[in-house]
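During the first year of the project, the team set up a workflow for recording each protein of interest as an amino acid sequence followed immediately by a discrete structure-token representation. This format lets reviewers and collaborators read both layers of information side by side without switching files. As required by the reporting guidelines, we include two representative entries from the current panel. The first entry is reproduced here exactly as it appears in our internal archive.
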Amino acid sequence: MSHPGIAIASIGVTLAIVLVTLVVGRGSERRASCRAALIPAYLPPRGIADLVRSTNRPRIVVINPNNGPGLAEHEAYRRAVREVRATGTRVLGYVATGYAARPAGDVVADVDRYLSWYGVDGIFFDEAASGEAALPYYAALARHVRSGADRLVVVNPGVAPARGYFDVADVVVTFEGAYVEYGAAVRAMPDWLRQEPPGRVAHLVYGASRAEALRAVADGAAGYVYATSGAMPNPWRTLPDYLSEEAEVLASCR
């Protein structure tokens, strides 16, 4: 997410976070209309596996062993991914793109490591550009991820991007920021974006109180809305203490 993810100390979690709609393939992302959880799970392996132990487990989790896959496979992550996928939850690998400035060959190498080492269901491209000029860069990366398989591509510019990003990715993160900015940002979204199926749009919100997070979950402004109490410089390394309440809101939609 515009902030490098890092592996963090072990956290026992029974989780489900916020988000809206989804998932079983690119076609279903376009059709879905109910909420479900997509969790940036920058956790150690045990914490990742714990995410699916509750009834209201997430539909998608993003793993990030070392600000990407790192340079060596970790068997503990491999086991955790296998355990999570066995429940029907899809697992994506985190790959930073440096706003399209990172050499595509380096990005592809990270993608290939995730696919080879962990058998992930797709890739979460972070630090994504938002302008039309970068579309060929992301289109080529998306083709590589899919390469004949039904893999999920999520792109995170963190703002409403050029419309062509929805031709490239299955899900686009059109907001990443603090809750205090969230309402105004949603109101300022372009009209064409409101016509996209909710399951193709994600919002990542940090610095949210319990009441604010539950409002974000229930609002339905996007197919995915992950709200956390975490704060800068890396809000995604902590988990809010109201996760079970968020899970209940999501469960009521099913």
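The second entry, processed by the same pipeline in the following quarter, appears below.
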Amino acid sequence: MNPDHLPASLRAAIESAGYRVVRWAAAREVLSARVAKGRVAGDLGAFLQRWMPISPPVVSRDAFRLVFNLAAEHSWLCGGDFELVSAPPERGLLHLPALRSFWRNELRQEHFEALKRVVPPAWFMDHGKVPPGAVIHGLGITGFERLDRMNHDEWEAGEGVLSRKQPSGERIVAQYGRDDRGKVVLRSLEAAS
């Protein structure tokens, strides 16, 4: 797909993704600091101590790129200059139900929902007990020992994280920069080679 002929809604989503990823990286830095200082208590704190990547993403970039996988009018954020975009554990943190209120507060509801739509879901394969009658949100299974019942063409496991595979599609590289007021803006779009 020619980047000049993207549907208006898709182009708008790509334009705003740069700002949203910068906010995500900043919020992720806040989460790292809270966990390091022991400000996240209880089961969630213990879970994050175990599963959260140690180094927070770098936020202060004047120019960066993001890579989008385009498939049937939908865009998936699949790579770029921010490690959190492509790292399954970082995607798992964004989609972790126990962190919803944190992300909503740090990112604002609209940005959080938009990021969840473009960042492929991922789940930490924690083999702890799931309460009777409960299922793992988004997977519909009662525990990770039930992965054999899932379609393996749609999922991949690695680093203790289960990730949704992205459908094949064209890739677009978006280059972002900051304007004279420091606002993140889209500078260019081009087909990935």
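For the second entry, the following points were noted during internal review. The CA atoms of residues 79 and 87 lie 9 Å apart. The chain has a mean pLDDT of 85. Both points are flagged for discussion at the upcoming steering committee meeting.
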